[in-house]
Amino acid sequence: MSIPVELYLPIAGNSVNIAAVFGLGGAVGLLSGIFGVGGGFLMTPLLIMMGIPPTVAAASDSNQIVGASTSGTLAHLRLGNVDVKMGFLLLIGGVLGGTVGVEIIKVLRQMGNADFLINVTYVLMLGLVGGYMFIESLQAMRKAKAPAKNEPEKHVKSGAFARFTASLPWQMDFKRSGVRMSPLLPLFLGGLVGVLSAIMGVGGGFIMVPVMVYLLRMPMHVVVGTSLFQILFTCINVTVMQSVSNHTVDFVLALILLIGSSLGAQIGAKVGKKLHGEQLKILLASLVLVVMFKILYELIARPDVLLAYVGGH
Amino acid sequence: MKRAAILLCILLAAAFAPMAARASGIDFTAQPGSIDIHALYNGTSLQVEGRVPEGSQVVLRFVGSSEDVRMKEKGKALGLLWMNMNTLHFGNVPKVCLIDSSAPMKDLGLAGAKLGLEGLADNISIDPPSADRKALLPELLLLKGQEGLFRQESSAVKLGEKHDGMQAFSAVLAIPSRLSPGTYSVEVFAVKDGVVQGQSAKPVDARLIGVPALMADLAFNHGAWYGILASIIAILGGLAIGLVFQSKGAH
Fold first, then answer.
1. Of the candidates B218, B215, B220, B205, the residue with the CA atom closest to the CA atom of residue B36
2. Whole-model pTM?
3. B150-153 and B97-101: which strand pairing?
């Protein structure tokens, strides 16, 4: 007697190997739990490689991220790593920015080649963010390894940006993050990430995390939890919108992915807790750089087939 | 009155179909007559058996209904970067086209060329008309081939005994797992001296049953509820796994 391993997905119109989908969900969920990124930029292309149509892969992935980020957020809430106030402000900014981004992409498409711009944006953004994070974390780790100098930690918070943020009105405390700033700043930065993520067609977690670390000066562990909290609401919105407009959410695919990814996210949250902030940053930076090089390679190397379906990421 | 006339025409067509098949000199069966796509469906096999006039080669095709496909053509920008450029509309593209034959298609002369994938490509239209057909059609066939939806082989059809001027044939056609519901057609062609001597076709319905049918109905006819339900189940799934981990940690 053999256990069935293939399952037919009616929305995707294809059958998939349950173990492969479960494993894929687990691996991406692990990353989500460790770094607080949704994992859409990895999951969607991998699903397409498994034979899932691009539009179904992207929409179903959003659905599974709802499960993964619920599980991850819960784990981080228990650890006290979620700044709910900051998360809501970033979310409001993100929704507003996302709406603007959708309009920008419409105009770009009408003007001609939006995809080229999207790919170049990806490469530049990921290269800048990943490169900066990588070098900065490497330097910090080297300093930490240097023999017992035990200098008191300097807060490098001076500079034009810090003076500007301090001058903004309605300054308030964000206790979980241990920072004081105007709510206008997270609203504005959330909006900016929202615009970029709409243009790039992803959740934006991997841009939001560096923004929280470097511009909002939040501690890395709170950043991860808060990012997951925000992603949860963003992906609920995407799931419902895609179901209504395009009928591209494959519920069964999402269900298998989410079991794998929720388990992965739980393990990821525990692994993340054992890692130091700098180690987390350098790992995330490496991940971002790998994705950047992959996109760059796709831009330069001749594709196998010179045709692509309209509707993918 | 008009409806009665249409009904009469359909009945007459149904009654004379086997006669037409016999007139073409081809008589065949395809089993199963319909494909049930259930939750564990992972492709299936279609057993085709029949007879063609003696001395003929057999070409067997499993073809889906045609559709229009919107695609992007990849091209080089600035002499360096590959990117999606022109939008193309391919018309009259079959959803599926699986071809098998008793001899290599290239050995079947003009008929082989016409019945094969290249011949099929001749019927596909491209908009805008200025698009480079010679370059684009092979790319489309390649893409569909990679998806497992287009295939051309000469290994499944076996010729059998000859009797009364007829020759038996049989084939087991592998149907891919990537199959959407709809009506497909099994076509048998008898080819001799590079010319199609006769042809016959039978419909095969593919339909969703069980859980996939329920899901498709909910997704396509009640999208909002489907999306809300999908979100709620995802949240509950995430919470349940979170609670399981919590209880483990407590011990």
1. B205
2. 0.71
3. parallel
